[in-house]
């Protein structure tokens, strides 16, 4: 854009943003269709408000000698909760799917379905990319996994 061009607010008016698109990502080669092709997971970005709610839900108090000294986000839990929210297919909240594994918590289901470490890491990486997170979040997730 030329330096002399007028910067219009019209471009940011409600309804001007591109719609969030679904993205298909293969995170495991162990789940295949009838032809033997890996089944892609379908991901969709989560809105900022919901991400903040997830961060709040994953915030835990920090204690030192029995006294609360602050709060911290449980980044491992946050990464998994964000993966559950972002993944459209498979639906990790599906009662039948949860029941088939004998699990109630969708986060536990994610880790059961993707029980090979690299698969889970692949999903977490795709989720953060789809949601537009930068390297800082990647580092936090890596720390959380270790």
Write the layout of secondary structure elements.
Blueprint: E1 23-25, E2 41-43, H1 48-57, E3 59-64, E4 67-73, H2 75-86, E5 87-89, H3 95-101, H4 106-113, H5 117-130, H6 135-145
Antiparallel strand pairs: 1-2, 2-5, 3-4
Give a summary of the structure in a few sentences.
With 146 residues, the chain is of the alpha+beta class.
Task: Write up what this structure looks like.
The chain has helices spanning 48-57, 75-86, 95-101, 106-113, 117-130, 135-145; strands at 23-25, 41-43, 59-64, 67-73, 87-89. It has 146 residues and is of the alpha+beta class. Strands 1-2-5 form a three-stranded antiparallel sheet. Strand 3 and strand 4 (67-73) form a beta hairpin. Helix 1 (48-57) packs antiparallel against helix 2 and helix 2 packs across helix 5. The longest helix is centred in the C-terminal third of the chain and has 14 residues, at 117-130. The protein is flat.
């Amino acid at each position: 854009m030329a330096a002399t061009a007028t910067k219009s607010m019209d471009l940011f008016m409600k309804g001007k943003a591109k719609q969030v698109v679904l993205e298909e990502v293969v995170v495991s080669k162990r789940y295949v269709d009838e032809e033997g092709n890996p089944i892609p997971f379908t991901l969709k970005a989560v809105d900022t408000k919901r991400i903040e709610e997830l961060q709040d839900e994953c915030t835990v108090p920090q204690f030192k000698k029995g006294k609360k000294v602050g709060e911290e986000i449980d980044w491992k839990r946050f990464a998994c909760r964000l993966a559950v929210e972002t993944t459209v297919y498979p639906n990790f909240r599906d009662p039948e799917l949860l029941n088939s594994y004998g699990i109630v918590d969708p986060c536990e289901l994610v880790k059961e379905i993707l029980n090979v470490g690299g698969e889970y890491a692949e999903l977490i990486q795709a989720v953060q990319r789809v949601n537009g997170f930068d390297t800082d979040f990647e580092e936090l997730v890596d720390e959380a996994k270790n």
